[in-house]
Design a protein that fits this description.
Helices cover 55% and strands 6% of the residues. It is mostly helical and 109 residues long. The chain folds into 2 domains: 50 residues, no CATH class; 45 residues, no CATH class. The protein has a two-stranded antiparallel sheet.
Length: 109
């Protein structure tokens, strides 16, 4: 009446009853498997809330810059932006004049 299930070896503890289709632990083998998509949304609110709590706690561990450092870093960034604006503007002007001479579309201003 009981016979080995599928490819299991003769010494295997997993045996299947032909009529009831249950394994040795008594669970049905043809029972529907849990859907992974549904499992993803289970307790999603708790997981999102926990992520915010963890982020809050991590932000307390951060060493924040002082006001003096922030002003200094901001000035460095502004000076760099002005410098790069001048460099890009110069390249644009020179490239425009070269192209106007090649094309011959009039006087470049």
């Amino acid at each position: 009446m009981n016979e080995p299930c599928g490819n299991s070896s003769p010494g295997s503890k997993v045996r299947m009853n032909r009529m009831a289709k249950t394994n040795a632990s008594g669970k049905r083998d043809d029972a529907p498997k849990p859907n992974k998509f549904v499992g993803f949304f289970k307790n999603i609110g708790l997981r999102v809330a926990q992520a915010f709590v963890d982020t809050y706690h991590e932000l307390h561990k951060v060493t924040w810059a002082t006001r003096k450092d922030l002003i200094n870093y901001s000035l460095v960034v502004l000076v760099f932006l002005v410098f790069m604006g001048i460099v890009v503007g110069a390249f644009d002007t020179v490239a425009g004049k070269i192209i106007m001479r090649i094309v011959g579309g009039g006087q470049a201003s």
